[in-house]
Amino acid sequence: MKTLVTHINPDLDAIFSVWMLQRFLLGWEKAKIEFCPAESTFNHQPVDSDPEVLHVDVGLGKLDHHQTSDFTSAAKLSLAYLLKVRKSEQLSPLDKQVLEMMVEVVNEVDNARDLDWPEIEKARYDFYLHNLFWGLRGLNASDTETMAYGLKSLEAIFHILKSRLKAQEEIKQGFVFETPWGQALALVTGNEAVLLEGEKKGYCLVVKKDPQEGGVRIYALPSSKVDLEKAYDWLKKNDSQGEWFLHSSHKILLNESRTKPMKPTKLSLEKIMEILKNG
């Protein structure tokens, strides 16, 4: 059976890519959807070894982008693959144009370029349901289906905005420190929203350490000159108890991930800050 595989806790890039392939790749309309941790594969099979299985945004194969520093995404790779495979049975010009528009947005979001959007701090970017409701009506969704989607979505938006406001207060209590690339921010919190809110405030990088498990997430502004490779090399060599992953952009350093289990570090936030102060 044809199977589309993506990572656990799928993000916009993963979900959009699966939707696009299932919707437009001929013969894949009824493909089963499976999940696996990042950097692994479905049933541990070699990636891209089975023509009936497509790994999307996972597995480091042809439809994954985590092995490159290019400004790309699974969505962008999947669209190129879709257009190549369909060949003479190309999409209609309108379908192709719409998909390209959607891929452009997904690609920007997945590479954190949405931070450059005008007034990104405004709540309206999290509150665009009215267009989605209009789209559901266009798909002849029933009132019950539209209401169920709306109720769940509004609960999600409420959660997002609440987390954002909490984060804005939390970062006021964070530790500001100097790095070779500029001022950075470090916090002990379980609120992941501090990463984005800190970047919006202009910090070159933000460090978040979870108070329960101890896992650390370090995010740098995409437009900054931050390079976390030196810190990664030190941690990989000296932190025997923690597991670390350096994104190919060298601007994301993770000891905690939504897409795969990782061993949390025992190092203190102060020690992580000391390492980053040295570049």
Give a structural overview.
- This protein is of the alpha/beta class and 279 residues long.
- It has 3 domains: 109 residues, no CATH class; 46 residues; 104 residues, Diaminopimelate Epimerase, Chain A, domain 1, CATH 3.10.310.
- It is built from 8 helices and 9 strands.
- The strands form 2 sheets. It has a 6-stranded mixed β-sheet, sandwiched between helices. Strands 2-1-3 form a 3-stranded parallel β-sheet, with helices on one face.
- A hairpin with a 2-residue loop joins strand 4 and strand 5.
- The longest helix has 28 residues.
- The chain is globular.
- The mean pLDDT is 93.
Average pLDDT over all residues: 93
Radius of gyration: 20 Å
**Percent helix:** 25-40%
- Assign the structural class, choosing from mainly alpha, mainly beta, alpha/beta, alpha+beta, or little secondary structure: alpha/beta
Q: Order of helices and strands, N to C?
A: EHEEHHHHEEHEEHEEH
- What is the number of E strands? 9
Assembly annotation = single chain
Low-confidence segments: none
Going across the major beta sheet, what is the strand order? Answer: 4-5-6-7-9-8
